Amino acid sequence: MATNRTFTMIKPDAVEAGHIGGIINMITEGGFKIVAMKLTQLTVRDAQKFYEVHKERPFYGELVEFMSRGPIVAAILEKENAVEDFRKLIGATNPAEAAEGTIRKKYAKSIGENAVHGSDSDENAAIESAFHFAGREQF
Ligand code: RTP
Ligand code: MG
C-alpha cells in the first residue's frame, strides 16, 4: 500500500472533556504522522457544508449544532493505507459497538457525540483537507 493521507477532527465533546492530548497520543502510537494540525471552530454553515451528505437524515440538525458548538482540532494524517487504517483506529460510529483499543471505545460518549471524525475515502480526505488547510499549512 502506498503512503497516503486522511483527514481527522477531534470533535467538540472530546475537546471540552480535555481529551486532545490522549487522542493525539493514540493517533501517533497508531503509526500516523501529523502533517497539518490546528485548533479551530466550525461555523454553522461550515458544519452544514461538511456534513451535507447527511442533510436528509433525522440527526442532521443535531449534528450541525454539535459540531459547531465549540472548538475542534483539525488535522491531516499520513500513513500507508491511511483512510482505512484510521477508520479502524477510531472504531464504530456508535461507541457501544466500537472495538476495544479504539479511540471511540475510550473517548466517545454516544453515537452523536463520538469524539473523532475520520474521512471515508481518499477523495473525501482530499476535499476535507483542502476545506481546512491551505497548501502551505500541509507538510
Ligand atoms: P464521521 O463522518 O464523523 O467520521 O463519522 P462516521 O463516518 O463514523 O459516521 P457517519 O455515518 O458519517 O455520521 C456522521 C456523524 O453523524 C453523527 N451521527 N449521529 N444520532 C445518530 O443516530 C447519529 N448517527 C450519526 C455522528 O457524530 C457521526 O459521526
Ligand atoms: Mg462519515
UniProtKB/TrEMBL annotation:
Cofactor (UniProt): Mg(2+)
Keyword Acyltransferase in record: no
Principal localisation: cytoplasm
Active site per the UniProt annotation: H117 (pros-phosphohistidine intermediate)
Origin: domain of life: Bacteria
Keywords for the protein's UniProt record, in alphabetical order: ATP-binding, Cytoplasm, Kinase, Magnesium, Metal-binding, Nucleotide metabolism, Nucleotide-binding, Phosphoprotein, Transferase
Residues of the Nucleoside diphosphate kinase-like domain: 3-137
Keyword Transferase: yes
Annotated catalysed reactions: a 2'-deoxyribonucleoside 5'-diphosphate + ATP = a 2'-deoxyribonucleoside 5'-triphosphate + ADP; a ribonucleoside 5'-diphosphate + ATP = a ribonucleoside 5'-triphosphate + ADP
A GO cellular component entry from the record: cytoplasm
A GO BP annotation: CTP biosynthetic process
Localisation per UniProt entry: Cytoplasm
The protein's role, per its UniProt record: Major role in the synthesis of nucleoside triphosphates other than ATP. The ATP gamma phosphate is transferred to the NDP beta phosphate via a ping-pong mechanism, using a phosphorylated active-site intermediate.
Subunit architecture: Homotetramer.
UniProt protein name: Nucleoside diphosphate kinase
Species of the source: Myroides indicus
Taxonomic path: Bacteria, Pseudomonadati, Bacteroidota, Flavobacteriia, Flavobacteriales
